[in-house]
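To the wet lab folks,

You asked to see what we're planning to order before we commit. Fair enough. Below is the target structure as tokens, and below that is the sequence we designed to fit it. If anything looks off to you, flag it before the synthesis order goes out.
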């Protein structure tokens, strides 16, 4: 159902209700939607926020907004009734109170059949397998993903996650695996626009996967059109980049240049180049939780076509939540062609139960003073 009331909200309302209220996740939806290019993005540690580039009306107002431009609020997946609108757009109904992890069709465990994809992937390598398969079958012509920032040496990274456009197997695999700091993958759309790509997949944490459905519902115009496939990463938080210096190095003497892999499975796991393995208690890491995550209510990437996670009893399978018909068609076809292996989600009921529990936990962070819908169902659960 499309919005019928006249939508008049501009940067001024976004600034007051989302950016300075603590709801802003730093997803950069507003940045890519702005037709006048007057919204910048601060990537620095402690920031990850949009800001207005024109100074004449101060930080909190926009001259184009005063003349009627509303694109930024139309694109923001934390503005007003974003959850119901995105639900209605994708599923033609809002989620029920008992649907803590959002609306979905199927839950599976999957992994890439190709050994290289599987090994480079964080869990089962499903996300990379989908991107490669969709690129090779021309379902998409590019994917908005995340890479590690280039450094002078091929083997050494500074672990700075940055948005990156992937257009082939090699560039997809260059981004495989998870970094637990923030990358506003949406911003890779600038390179896709330069290349005139028309059919994109967006890979992103939960906050980023609501951008497309909210934009489409609120009719933002051409900014939302190229995003055709939405792949979500389950997420309870991401960390500020300063965690590398202030905790891993300062307290544990672990230089980021020597880290080769990291994961979160109850603890923060870090593998080093010399084969050493370290576990750091997550409670110690809490202080470095990125500010934008503190009020985030969406653990399960509820508005993706396919949401993916690493919870469960087996490390090398991806928990796969299929939400839309498009998501189902892609997974079915990939299974049929043997590109991925799959087994029923019911074979690991603990993983599904944990997803619902973590989803409820994230919803409880959404503040009482904001739109009530994301907290809906919490009381029912508690009772
Ligand atoms: C910050 C973060 C927090 C997460 N928290 C959880 C959690 O609490 N519970 C859970 O079950 N799963 C969580 N995940 C998801 C999980 O780590 C895997 O990404 C997911 O299971 C897919 O695995 P895969 O092997 O299929 O993906 P892969 O084939 O490894 O592909 C992963 C994709 O994620 C992209 N990516 C990697 N890091 C980032 C980043 N920082 N920002 C944006 N995109 C990125 C890559 O570019 C790649 O396209 C989290 C992921 C991230 C990035
Ligand atoms: S949540 Fe995203 S779209 Fe909304 S103000 Fe923040 S960066 Fe912009
Ligand atoms: S918790 Fe994850 S999904 Fe939510 S704002 Fe933080 S990074 Fe985004």
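Sequence we intend to order:
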């Amino acid at each position: 159902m499309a919005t019928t009331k006249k939508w008049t909200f501009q940067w001024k309302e976004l600034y007051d209700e989302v950016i300075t209220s603590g709801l802003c996740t730093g997803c950069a939806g507003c940045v890519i939607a702005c037709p006048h290019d007057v919204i910048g993005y601060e990537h620095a540690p402690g920031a990850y926020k949009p800001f207005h580039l024109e100074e004449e009306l101060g930080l909190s107002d926009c001259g184009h907004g005063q003349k009627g431009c509303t694109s930024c609020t139309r694109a923001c997946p934390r503005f007003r009734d974003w959850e119901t609108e995105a639900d209605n757009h994708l599923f033609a109904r809002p989620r029920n109170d008992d649907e803590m992890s959002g609306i979905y069709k199927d839950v599976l465990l999957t992994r890439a059949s190709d050994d290289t994809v599987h090994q480079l992937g964080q869990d089962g390598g499903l996300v990379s397998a989908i991107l490669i398969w969709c690129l090779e079958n021309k379902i998409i012509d590019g994917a908005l993903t995340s890479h590690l920032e280039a450094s002078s040496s091929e083997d050494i990274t500074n672990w700075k996650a940055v948005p990156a456009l992937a257009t082939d197997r090699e560039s997809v695999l260059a981004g495989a695996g998870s970094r637990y700091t923030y990358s506003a993958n949406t911003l890779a759309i600038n390179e896709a626009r330069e290349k005139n790509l028309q059919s994109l997949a967006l890979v992103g944490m939960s906050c980023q996967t609501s951008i497309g459905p909210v934009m489409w519902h609120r009719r933002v115009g051409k900014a939302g059109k190229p995003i055709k496939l939405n792949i979500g990463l389950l997420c309870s938080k991401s960390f500020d980049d300063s965690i590398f210096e202030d905790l891993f190095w300062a307290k544990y003497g672990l230089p980021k240049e020597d880290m080769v892999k990291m994961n979160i499975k109850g603890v923060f796991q870090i593998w080093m180049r010399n084969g050493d393995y370290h576990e750091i208690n997550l409670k110690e890491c809490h202080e470095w939780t990125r500010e934008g995550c503190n009020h985030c209510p969406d653990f399960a990437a509820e508005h993706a076509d396919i949401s993916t996670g690493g919870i469960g009893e087996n490390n090398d399978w991806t928990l796969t939540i299929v939400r839309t018909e498009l998501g189902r068609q892609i997974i079915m076809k990939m299974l049929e062609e043997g590109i991925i292996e799959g087994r029923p989600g019911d074979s690991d009921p603990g993983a599904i139960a944990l997803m619902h529990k973590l989803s409820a936990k994230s919803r409880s962070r959404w503040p009482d003073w904001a739109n009530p819908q994301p907290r809906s169902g919490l009381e029912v659960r508690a009772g």
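Structural context that might help your review: The two ends are 32 Å apart (CA to CA). The chain has two domains: 11-81, 106-382.

Thanks,
Computational group
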